[in-house]
């Protein structure tokens, strides 16, 4: 079983469903050690008292909020919980909305919610209701020391809780320089749009997440293994002097030609078939 990050209950109306919160992420990452390039020995970091210079052990470290310069209020895990006991133990559903109303930029981190033994009936009821109505629950939840707004989404037989960004956490797009939606004003022709649509249709496929994997992670592991076999473990690779080949500044790109070539590569250029009679005569056979 994965480690439980949090235990509490889903609450909507007068219904309380006891659940546990579990991380839905499993990231590929490298456990890299920082080294002194002069000796290739590990670099350590000391926890020390900035006033006395003395080392400080983890047991002697507490967290504090600086309310005045150099003066702190000490806060423990118990303080974070006591600030609002109910908020730290409840996924409080506020409303139900259509999932497509939530912009993709709002989604942040996925978690799984799983019921404890007392919550199976209520959990199944909520999950199936979400499925049948096509709605997602919008809730407030506190994880560790922060309150989130979150979306509860049915996923297979599980209720997925995805934390959402607050609107105030997203930067405005007004300061970005982007092309006008008037395609004619930016020089995009109807033929280019049609060719781009054909390319999209030619590359259309069903979403199969299991087909996608972190190939960069694999490539980096292969590079590491190659360096080990070659005995080049302590070589510091310097940046390449070769400049990346890019279109020259101001160079005019023939977008239509690139689109057409892309479609041809995908094998999507279908020549119109000749009428049946013409095909029959050409092949030496009589048309039926």
Would you write up a description of this structure?
The protein has 288 residues and is α+β, with helices and mostly antiparallel strands. Helix 3 runs parallel beside helix 5. Helices cover 23% and strands 26% of the residues. The C terminus is likely disordered. The protein has a seven-stranded mixed barrel. It has a two-stranded antiparallel sheet with strand order 3-4. Among the domains are: 109 residues, Ku70, Chain: A, Domain 2 (Beta Barrel); 36 residues, no CATH class.
List the helices and strands and how they pair.
Layout: E1 6-12, E2 15-23, E3 35-36, E4 41-42, E5 63-68, E6 71-75, H1 77-82, E7 90-98, E8 107-115, H2 120-133, E9 135-143, E10 146-155, E11 158-164, H3 190-202, H4 215-229, H5 255-265, H6 276-282
Parallel strand pairs: 1-7
Antiparallel strand pairs: 1-2, 2-8, 3-4, 5-6, 7-9, 8-11, 9-10, 10-11
How much of the polypeptide forms β-strand, as a percent range?
Answer: 25-35%
What is the name of the CATH class of the domain at 6-27 and 81-167? Mainly Beta
Topology order in helix (H) and strand (E) letters: EEEEEEHEEHEEEHHHH
Biggest pleated-sheet summary: 7 strands, mixed, barrel
Question: What low-confidence regions span 5 or more consecutive residues with pLDDT below 50?
Answer: 268-288
Principal-axis shape: extended
Count the E strands: 11
Briefly note the CATH topology name of the domain at 6-27 and 81-167. Answer: Ku70, Chain: A, Domain 2
Radius of gyration: 29 Å
Name the CATH architecture of the domain at 6-27 and 81-167.
Answer: Beta Barrel
Number of helices: 6
Label the structural class. Answer: alpha+beta
* Arithmetic mean pLDDT: 83
Provide the helix percentage.
Answer: 10-25%
The CA-CA distance between the termini, in Å, is: 67 Å
Strand neighbour order, sheet with most strands: 1-2-8-11-10-9-7
């Amino acid at each position: 079983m994965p480690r439980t990050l949090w235990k509490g209950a889903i609450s909507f109306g007068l219904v309380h469903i006891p659940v546990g919160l579990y991380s839905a992420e499993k990231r590929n990452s490298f456990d890299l050690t920082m080294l002194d390039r002069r000796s290739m020995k590990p670099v350590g970091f000391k926890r020390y008292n900035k006033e006395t210079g003395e080392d400080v052990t983890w047991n002697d470290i507490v967290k504090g909020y600086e309310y005045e310069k150099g003066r702190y209020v000490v806060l423990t895990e118990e303080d974070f919980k006591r600030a609002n006991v109910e908020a730290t133990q409840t996924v409080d559903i506020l409303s139900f909305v259509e999932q497509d109303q939530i912009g993709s930029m709002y989604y942040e981190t996925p978690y799984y919610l799983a019921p404890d033994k007392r919550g199976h009936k209520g959990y199944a009821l909520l999950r199936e209701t979400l499925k049948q109505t096509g709605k997602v629950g919008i809730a407030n939840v506190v994880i560790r020391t922060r309150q989130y707004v979150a979306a509860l989404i049915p996923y297979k037989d599980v209720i997925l809780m995805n934390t959402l960004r607050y609107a105030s956490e997203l930067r405005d797009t007004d300061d970005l320089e982007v092309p006008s939606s008037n395609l004619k004003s930016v020089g995009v022709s109807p033929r280019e749009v049609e060719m781009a649509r054909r390319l999209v249709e030619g590359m259309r496929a069903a979403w199969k997440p299991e087909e996608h994997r972190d190939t960069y992670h694999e490539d980096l592991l292969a590079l590491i293994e190659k360096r080990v076999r070659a005995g080049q473990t302590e070589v510091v690779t310097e940046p390449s002097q070769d400049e990346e080949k890019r279109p020259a500044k101001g160079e005019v790109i023939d977008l239509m030609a690139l689109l057409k070539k892309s479609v041809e590569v995908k094998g999507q250029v279908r020549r119109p078939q000749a009428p049946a009679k013409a095909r029959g005569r050409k092949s030496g056979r009589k048309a039926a």
